[in-house]
Amino acid sequence: MCDCVYVMLLFVLFVGAFGAEEDSLLCEMLGNPEFPLLSKEGDITIGGAFSIHSQISTPPLSFTDAPGPLICSRINLREFRFAQTMIFAIEEINNSSSLLPNISIGYKIFDSCGSTLPSTRAVMGLMNGQERTLGKNCSSQSSVHAIIGASESSSTIVMLQISGIFQIPVISHFATCACLSNIKEYPSFFRTIPSDYYQSRALAKLVKHFGWTWVGAVRSDNDYGNNGMATFITTASQEGVCIEYSEAISRTDPSEQVAKVVKVIQSGSARVLVAFLAQGEMNILLEEALKHNLTGLQWVGSESWITASHLAIKRYSAILTGSLGFTIRKTKISGLREFLLQVNPSQDPHNDLLREFWEDTFGCSFHSSLHGQTQCSGSESLQDIDNPFTDVSELRISNNVYKAVYAVAHAAHSMLKCGQSGEAVNQWCIWKNDLEPKQVVTHLQAVNFTLQSGERVYFDENGDPAATYELVNWQRNQAGDTVFVTVGSYDASLPNGKQFNMNGINTMWAAGSLKRPQSVCSERCLPGFRQAVIKGKPICCFSCIACAAGEISNSSNPAECLRCPLEYWSNEDHSQCVQKVIEFLSYGETMGALLTAFSLFGAGLTLLVSCVFFWFRHTPLVKASNSELSFLLLFSLTLCFLCSLTFIGRPSEWSCMLRHTAFGITFALCMSCILAKTIAVVMAFKAKRPSNTVPQCSAPLQRTSVLSCTSLQVLVCVLWLTLAPPYPYKNTAYATERIILECDLGSPLGFWAVLGYIGLLALLCFILAFLARKLPDNFNEAKFITFSMLIFCAVWVTFIPAYVSSPGKFTVAVEIFAILASSYGLLFCIFAPKCYILLLKPERNTKKHMMGRNQ
C-alpha cells in the first residue's frame, strides 16, 4: 500500500514539473526504441511484420526492475522467405519505369515472433521510428505509410488496435480470421488471403462430400482457431456432420496439456481429424503425436499448415500422409528464386538476422570458438540447399506478400497522380511531403490491377479478396517424398452445389491407403430402414428401425420413411413403392368361376323347364297353372340368373349402373308374375259360381298388374340413375395393402328403395299365398308359392347383415349368392313339382285329376 502511494506521489510531481517546464522540454520517447531487422530508406516506406522466429522467451518480471527485452529464437525459414519476397517486390517496383517512376520505396521489417507481445512492440516501432526526440510536440506522422503483416490473426488484431487509431493501412498476407472482415471495427485493414469464413465452410463441405459425418476437431486457442472452428462447426451441423470432440491448444501450453489433447484424439472413435491450427500449435501437436504413436487418422487441415513444407518430412509422414486441406492457388514469381539465392550476410555484415540465417542454413558459426563448430566463411552457396527458404515450388503465401506490396504501390501511384507528361514516354508523379497513411487507405479500397502472372488483385467492401481455393492432398512420390497434389477446387463466388469440385485425380488417404476411410458414429441404414435418434447422443449416432407397412426408404440414412401414394404399397423389403393389388371378383378366380357356373346352370335349367312347359303346353296341368304367366315367370327367372353375371368382372361405369338396375327390374318382374299368379289362384278358388260377384282375374288384368308393378320399379331405377347413379370406386380404406375395386351405390337410398320394393312384392305374395295354402284342390299352387316366398324372404333377410359386414369382393359374392339362391328357390319350389308330374307322373296330368278335390 505504501509503495502505491509513493508511486502516485512521484507521478504527480512528474506531471507538475513537466507542466511547469513544458515550453523548455522536447517530446521524447519513453523507453528504448525498437529497431527493424531489415530496413532501407525510401520516399515511401512500407513496414513489414513477419514471424521470423517461432519461439519466444519472456524475461522474469518484477516490480523493482524494468523488464528485459524479449528474446525470439528458432528462425522460421518460411517466414524469412516471406520477408525476402517483400524486399524482392519492392526492388522490382523501384526498378520499374511504369509504376511509381522516380519515387523510391523503402522498408522496415520487424519480427512479430508469432506472438501478440512482440507484435505490439513491432507496430510501435513501425509507427515511431528510432528517433528519440521529435521537437516540442508529438504530432509527427508515422514512420511508415502502410504495414504488411502479420502472419497470425491474433498478432494482426493487436497491431490493428494500435495502428487503426492513426488510420495506418495494414495488409495481411496470412491473417484469415473472419472477425477481421468487420469493416466498422477495422476500417484500415486489408488482406490478400481469403477470410476463414469461406475456408471453414469449404472444409465442412469437404467433410460432407466424402461422407464423414463423425469427426474430431482441434484448434488453436486464439482468434484464428476459435473463430475458424466456430464457423466450421456451425456449417458442419447444417451439413449433417457431428463433432465428437473439439479441443484447443496453444503454443505456450505445457506438454502435459498437449498430451491430454492427444489422448482425447486417440480415445475417440472418429477417424477424421479437422485441425484448424496455426503452424506453432501444429508443431507441438505433431511432436506429442509422435510420442503417443498417433497414426491412422485422416487429417483435414487449415490453410495455415496444409502446404507447410517443413512439416512434409519423413518424420511426420506416418501421421500426415494423405492429409487434405484447402489453400490458395499457387503461382510462379519470375526472378524470385534468383533473388533468394543471392541473400548473403555480406549484403549487411552487421545484420544479426542474416548471420543467424546463414548459420542455421549451413550448420556453421561465425564464431569459431563455439564447441568446435565449423566456421562460416560467407562464401557458401544456397544453390545446393533445399529448405523452406529456397523452395519456391509452392508459392502461395509468398505470392500474397508479393500482391500486398504491389497493392500499396498501385495505391500510391494513384494517390500521387502518376501519369504521362503530354506525349512523352517518361512517367512522372506529383510528390507530396505530407503523404498521410489515411490517404493510402482510401486509394487501397479502389485498387484493381493485374499482375504479370495474369492474376487480378482487388478488395471487396470488407477489404477481402475473392475466395478461391485449391484442395491439396499430401501424396508420396516414387522417391518416397511428400508432395502436394491439387485434387480439387472451391470457388465461393459460384452458386451452391457448384462451389466444390474434384478434378478426377486419384486421392491418397491416411497412411498412404488408396481406400477412402469411413468415419461415422453409426453405420448407414439400409434401404427399408430409417434413423432413430439415440437419447443423449448427437444426431449422427442412431439406430436403424424398419419402416412401417406402406412406408419406404430408398436412400441411405433417411430421418423419416416416406409414405407411399394412395394407390401404391411398400414392397417386401420396404425399399420402393409398388402398385397395389387391385381386387375385384373376376371370372378367372375360383369363386368367380363357380358363381358363373351356377348362374349359367340356373339359366340353362330355367330354359329347360321352359322347353318342358312348351312341350306340354296343351296339357291340363300347364293350362291350369296359367301358362302365360308361367312362361313370363320363367323368362324373368332366366334374366335373374343371368343378371348375376353383371356383378362379376372389373367394375366399369356401365356395369355398375347395369348390375343393380338389372337386378332390381328382373326381380320386380319376377315378383310381379308370382303376385299375379297368387291373386289368380286366390280369386279362382274364392269363386263359388260363374255369377259370383267376385271379379274374375282375366288375362288382360294380369298383364296390366305385372306391367304396373314392374313399371314402378323401372321408374325408381330411372330416378336413381338420373340423380346419383352407381360408379366404379377404388376402396383403399378397408385394406391398406390392396385396392378393392367396387361399385359405389351413388345413392344408398336408391339401392335400398329398389331392394325394399322387391321385398314388398315378396311380402304381398307370401301373405296371399299363405292365405290360400289350404284351398281344397289336388293342384293347389298357393302352397308352393308360399314355400318359395318363405325361402326368398329368408335369403334376402339374411343377405342384409351379410352384405353390410362382408369385406371387399365378398360383398359382391354375397349379393350374387342371394340372387342365385332366391332364383333357385323360386325355380324349384314353383316348377319342380309340375315338372315331376309332367315327366314322371303323366297319369296325374288329366282334367279330372286337376278338378278333383282333396279329401
Describe the structure.
- Mean pLDDT is 85; it is low at 1-24, 421-425 and 689-695.
- This protein has 23 helices and 29 strands.
- The chain is rod-shaped.
- The protein is an alpha/beta fold and 855 residues long.
- The protein folds into five domains: 33-57 and 70-132 and 140-194 and 392-465, Rossmann fold, CATH 3.40.50.2300; 196-327 and 467-512, Response regulator (Rossmann fold, 3-Layer(aba) Sandwich), CATH 3.40.50.2300; 348-389, no CATH class; 529-579, no CATH class; 615-689 and 696-851, Rhopdopsin 7-helix transmembrane proteins (Up-down Bundle).
- The relative contact order is 0.07.
- The strands form nine sheets. The protein has an eight-stranded mixed beta sheet with strand order 10-9-11-12-13-18-19-20, sandwiched between helices.
- 43% of the residues lie in helices and 15% in strands.
- Helix 7 (255-267) crosses helix 8, helix 17 runs antiparallel to helix 22 and helix 18 (653-686) packs antiparallel against helix 19 (699-723).
- A hairpin with a 6-residue loop joins strand 25 (568-570) and strand 26 (577-579).
- The longest helix is centred in the C-terminal third of the chain and has 34 residues, at 653-686.
Short description:
The chain is α/β, with parallel strands linked by helices. 43% of the residues lie in helices and 15% in strands.
